[in-house]
Amino acid sequence: MSFDVAAVRSEFPILKEKIGKYPLVYLDNGATTQKPQIVIDAICNYYTHQNANIHRGVHHLSQVSTEAYETARTTIQKAINATHNHECIFTKGTTDGINLIAHSFGKGLEKGDEIIISALEHHSNIVPWQFLVEEKGVLLKVIPMLQDGSLDFDAFLALLSAKTKLLSITHISNALGIINPIEKYIEAAHKVGAKVLIDAAQSLQHFAIDVQALDCDFMVFSGHKIFGPTGVGILYGKEVELNALPPYQGGGDMIKTVTFEKTTYNELPHKFEAGTPNIVGGIALGTAFEWRNKLDLKAVEAHENELLAITTEALLKIDGLKIYGDAPNKSSVISFLIDGLHPYDIGTLLNQQGVAVRTGHHCTQPIMDYYHIPGTIRVSFSLYNTKSDVESLITALKKAVKMLK
Ligand code: PMP
């Protein structure tokens, strides 16, 4: 198999949009990816032909809807190679998945227990653990980062002890694009008996993940960053780990029996899926995975790595431009600043030329504090980006710099 970027691109209708008189150059894929027509059609098809509540009705539409939702779960299970489909819990997204674990895993923690996160975390993998620090008196420890944006593995080893109950770590930094070698972090954490939660929000759009090979206990991601809709995501958990946790929210679907005296809980995955879920979101996320399954993901990775290399080279030729996070193992994300220029001004001038990039702290204020900067300009590629997008970016950027200097 190989990868035909023009053919893939033609499946994304939004990429034909114009911003003023300029064609859209979408380079904000770290924030969210665009959706192929097949995913858009799945959403429309659901409300046109399938809409009904799931798991409850004997009538035809309810059965069709339930079947489509559960088929999507199985598609996702297979894509990440989970052992059972009930190990894939539908959530609202990465943030929701982390909060679920913080709540349910947190119930079993005691004062003095330790949780380790890293200096590269998104705010959604910092704040839920701080709630536990306040509520339970657990200690939150942070793996420090180094100048090149990688993590200090030796410092991590020194943080580990019998008190460590959980390591919650991002696979890829959304702000810098650095890929953490999570395999060795997982192995080391398991040696002291800690569980491991992987924030895969940024990784699944770039390459495949095999949760069994990785041996993580939990993994979370958002559908909207992998060509699916917003408001839906997945918490993967090993069956034994999920069964050991109390439920997150109470309500319909998550119960077996209810009396005013006592409630018994449903089995996985329903125990963690209280209330009517984002049914259409789950189904369309399944469609997004089916679509992605047909791609040669190794060829996609090579394509994105080429975009990363040529863009990095071209950017570094611009006077006063500094890239933050230049450790060798990177996904196709580049964060940079230009001497004396505010990222927001650059972002605004790029937008005026049709180029969509992100500016700011990217929900990673501790990283910005580490570098003593207010924020960066972040370019993040996806599989449908082309060399022509890179040329547009560089031309627009040079023009913006000229206007501002
Ligand atoms: N973690 C990482 C690494 C992210 O990139 C993001 C989204 N920027 C999140 C967590 C939060 O994802 P969501 O807003 O979809 O819940």
From TrEMBL:
What is the designated name of this protein?
Cysteine desulfurase
Lineage, top-rank taxon, reads Bacteria
UniProt entry keywords in alphabetical sequence: Pyridoxal phosphate, Transferase
Q: Which reaction does it catalyse?
A: (sulfur carrier)-H + L-cysteine = (sulfur carrier)-SH + L-alanine
Q: Which cofactor does it need?
A: pyridoxal 5'-phosphate
Entry keyword Transferase:
yes
Please give the function described in this protein's UniProt entry: Catalyzes the removal of elemental sulfur and selenium atoms from L-cysteine, L-cystine, L-selenocysteine, and L-selenocystine to produce L-alanine.
Q: What is its EC number?
A: 2.8.1.7
UniProt key word Magnesium: no
Gene3D superfamilies this protein is in?
Aspartate Aminotransferase, domain 1, Type I PLP-dependent aspartate aminotransferase-like (Major domain)
Gene Ontology MF terms: cysteine desulfurase activity; pyridoxal phosphate binding
> Where does this protein come from, organism-wise?
Putridiphycobacter roseus
Could you tell me which PANTHER family the record lists for this protein? CYSTEINE DESULFURASE, CYSTEINE DESULFURASE 1, CHLOROPLASTIC
Which family does the record claim for this protein?
Belongs to the class-V pyridoxal-phosphate-dependent aminotransferase family. Csd subfamily.
Ranges of residues in domain Aminotransferase class V = 25-393
Gene Ontology BP annotations? cysteine metabolic process
